[in-house]
C-alpha cells in the first residue's frame, strides 16, 4: 500500500515546522479543502491510500508517512443525501463505525493524535434546549437525535471514541464554504431545493474553521469540540443574504417540517451547539452571521454582482 505525495518536494520529509499530516478523504469535500490549505501553508502532508476498515492498510500508510498527526475526513455521508444510509446500513457501519474506530485504534497504538471530522447532527432541540432559546448542547451532553441511521451510528461512534484519549472529535454541522457552485455546500443545496424549511441552526463555515482544525492539531488538542460558529442562522436568513449579495432576483418557497417529511426518508437534525469551549480556545472566532458575510458573501459579491 503506497502513499501519494500531494505536496511536491516538501511532503517527502518533515519541514522545519516539524509537522507532517496524514489525511484520509482525498476525493472528499473536506479532505480536498484540507489538502489545499496544507499546500498553501507549506505544511507537508500526504493522503492515505488505505480504506479505513482495513487495519493493515492504515498501518502501512502510517509506516510509510511517519506523520505527526492524522486527520480523518473520510466516511460515507450518502449520495444524493443521508437517506442513502437508510438503505445501505452495512456500508455505513463499515466506513463510519468500523473504519473510524479502526483508524482511532491504530493511531492510538502509534501514539498519534487523530483529528476526526465528526458531526453535530446527533442532537435535536428539546425541552432543555428549545429553539430560539440560545441554550445550546454542550460537548458533554448525550446525543438525543437518532432519527436517521447516519446520525444514530455517528452518535454511537462518538460515544466509543470518548475512550480514546488520542482523538480530537470535531462536531461539524451543515458545512458551508465560499465555493457557491459546490453542490455539497449547504447554501448551494438550499438555493436549489424547490422548497426549504426555515429553522435556526448551528453551522460550520469551513473557510474559517478548517484552518482552526489545523491549529488544533498543532496545539495537540483532543476530546470533543462543538465545531460550529457561535450562534444560529435560519434558512431564510441565509437566503436573504444570498439575495442581497449574489442574486437580487432570487426567490424561494418555504414549507414546514410535516411537508418536508413527505420528500425525505429520514428526519433531519435541527439544533444549536454551545461553542463556549471553542471560542475560549479561539477568541477570534466569528459568529455565524459575521462569518457568513466575511468568508462567503463578501468574497462572492464582487464576482457575482456587477
Ligand atoms: N458534508 C456534510 O454535510 C457533513 C456534515 C457534518 C459532518 N460531515 C463529516 O465530515 C466527514 C467528511 O465529509 P465530506 O462532506 O468531505 O464527505 P465526502 O465529500 O462524501 O467525502 C468522503 C470521503 O471519504 C472517503 N471514504 C468513504 N469511505 C471510505 C472508507 N471506507 N475508507 C477510506 N475512505 C473512505 C471517500 O473516498 P472514496 O471516494 O474513495 O470512497 C471520500 O474521499 C464525514 O465523516 C462526514 O460525516 C460532513
Number of strands: 7
What gyration radius follows from the Cα positions, in whole Å?
19 Å
Give the % helix. Answer: 25-40%
- Secondary-structure element sequence? EEHEHEHHEHEHHEHHHH
Looking at CATH, the homologous superfamily of one domain is NAD(P)-binding Rossmann-like Domain
- The CATH architecture of one domain: 3-Layer(aba) Sandwich
GO molecular function: methionine adenosyltransferase regulator activity; oxidoreductase activity
Pathway: Carbohydrate biosynthesis
Keywords: Oxidoreductase
Protein name: RmlD-like substrate binding domain-containing protein
Notes on the structure:
This protein has 306 residues and is α/β, with parallel strands linked by helices. The protein has a domain at 75-178 and 203-232 and 271-291: 3-Layer(aba) Sandwich (Rossmann fold). The chain contains eleven helices and seven strands. The chain has helices spanning 29-41, 55-65, 83-87, 89-109, 149-161, 186-192, 206-218, 235-245, 257-261, 276-281, 288-304, and strands at 4-5, 21-24, 45-47, 69-72, 113-119, 167-172, 223-226. 40% of the residues are buried. Residues 1-15 have low confidence and may be disordered. The site of NADP nicotinamide-adenine-dinucleotide phosphate has 24 residues, from helix 1, helix 4 and strand 5.
Index terms:
seven-stranded mixed sheet, 306 residues, alpha/beta, 10% strand, binds NADP nicotinamide-adenine-dinucleotide phosphate, oxidoreductase, methionine adenosyltransferase regulator activity, globular, Rossmann fold
Task: Give a quick rundown of the structure.
Pfam families: RmlD_sub_bind. With 306 residues, the chain is α/β, with parallel strands linked by helices. It contains 11 helices and 7 strands.
